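Final paragraph of the annual report: two paired records, presented back to back.
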Amino acid sequence: MSAAVTASPVTHAPPLLPPAEPTEGARIAEFVRAASFEATRPSEAEVAAFAAVAAPATPVYVSAVPSRPPAEQIAVAKRLHAHGFEPVPHVAARNFDSAIALDDYLARLAEEAGVRRLLVIGGDRDTPAGGFHQAIEVIESGLPQSRGIREIGIAGYPEGHPRIAAAEIDRLLAAKIEAAAATGLGVHIVTQFAFAPEPILAYVARLRERGIEQPVRIGIAGPASVATLMRFAAICGVATSARALARNAGLVKHLFGASAPDAILRALAGAQLGEILPHFFTFGGLGATARWAAAVAGGHIALDRAGGFRVEPP
């Protein structure tokens, strides 16, 4: 006769609770941790100041200046690469007088600065230096791909372009995305900066409605004086939100008399618009912008009732 088996009492694990939603401050910090930066001719001291606070491999876009030689831009890319960052140079089609010159430039970027991504633009020259007139011609040339470039950025304009009609901008954007896909290049969009969240949100929403799902790096003016921001706004043709900045200049000074993009970041961090990431234009300096962004990414912020936040000491 076998011994009776006493059944053990059945225990039930407590139900798993859904993970807590991150707080708004945590969402803002997480959003800013994915930021890229843009600079023109940062000095060694500026790059060192950036390196003191920025995460390794942070993308830094290097502007192309029509009046400056390409070798200068290559030197900046090399400096950034040596400090462990990812240089993403602007390639302005109209700046190159031949395909040979463009190929030599791309070869040096790849070999000397480890460049694998570019921002391809038409450029600001009224008269092209050679046969390249538009960004799409660089994409279709196959030269970036032959030098190991795996992804390109394409410019986007939330407030339109001062010299190109909106319908033509839409057509060119779609054509560049199609050309990149046909030649094996990944694509992301980098927008011009704005001083208010509304045109940015409307622009990205319109992209998504058109079936354009590529990542979008949102141009954001980093902390700088209001006078500096107004000057760059005039140069870059962002008149609509520049007027908004001028109307509210007395309300947006947070950091040593500078205007900070807190309201824009707060609005974007909560947006459900696919993959969007912040892209800081560093008009106040690469190091200063990075220090401010690092404080935000570290969660050292206090939300305010005006829809923004202030940065607090750690």
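The closing record of the year follows.
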Amino acid sequence: MNKLIAGLCCLMLGAAPLALAQDKAKADEKKSTQAMEKAADKKAEKATKEPSEAQKKQQERMKSCNAKAGDKKLEGDARKKFMSSCLKGEEAGASDKQKAQQEKMKSCNKEAGDKKMKGDDRKKFMSNCLSK
């Protein structure tokens, strides 16, 4: 009988570390679950934060560029190209032909001003100068 009691005591002492190891594993699992929940909470918090000033500015730029592209009825690659340049702040300027016409207009206007032309004479001169 004493041997039986002694054997049971040894068995219980031998099994105790195993039971403690299981409890520790459960505690570690619980800690990692809590850590993941905290990380998820932080992500959710970031998602609900107000956008920064730079983000607001970019959103406004996106809205205006989208509206301009819609007004011009751009689609496909032309729209992508326009949106890219618009978002970078590079507004689509005048074409080369328009730039040449503007330069011609400036030089003719300057020449008419230098000659102090007014009224119908100026109109005639400008018409002839621009048609060259």
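The mean pLDDT is 78. This concludes the annual technical report; the extension proposal builds directly on these records.
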